[in-house]
Amino acid sequence: MNEFVESMAQVVTGVTVVTVKDERDDVGVTVGTFTSISLDPPLVMVSLGNTGYLNELLLRHDRWAASVLSAEQKTIASRFATAGRPGARLLLAGMPHHRGERSGALVVDGGVTALEAETVKVVPAGDHTLFIAKVLGVDYVDASVPPLTRYRSRYR
What we know:
Elements: H1 2-9, E1 13-14, E2 16-21, E3 26-31, E4 34-39, E5 42-49, H2 53-58, E6 63-68, H3 74-81, H4 88-91, E7 97-99, E8 106-108, E9 113-125, E10 128-141, E11 149-151, E12 154-155
């Protein structure tokens, strides 16, 4: 298992914050597995650990947002990756963000892109769950900023 973990640490991944609006609060988490899987129709996929609270919420709420972070947003990535974190509104206090029109979820401003999605299929995959979603809309794209990546267990 350690060899597999080390092997996957050699793969560069973009860093994304996925958020959802719950009845009680806004919740979000930093993920390393977010990708486009289809252009027609536009579909994306996020992979979440089965034991996480966001996984539980996405099984109940179909609409969510994904904010792909820029290299300058390491602090945001760290805040959303910390165990026992407070709600997303507190984590984004003082940081530019807005509420997505289509999902109602919080969207982080200043990243490389952000979109809103609606889950169309849930696939159990070992200790993770894959959420395949149709893209409801792209909130913004900023090709002028470099993305935040994770490589060898560090933000780059």
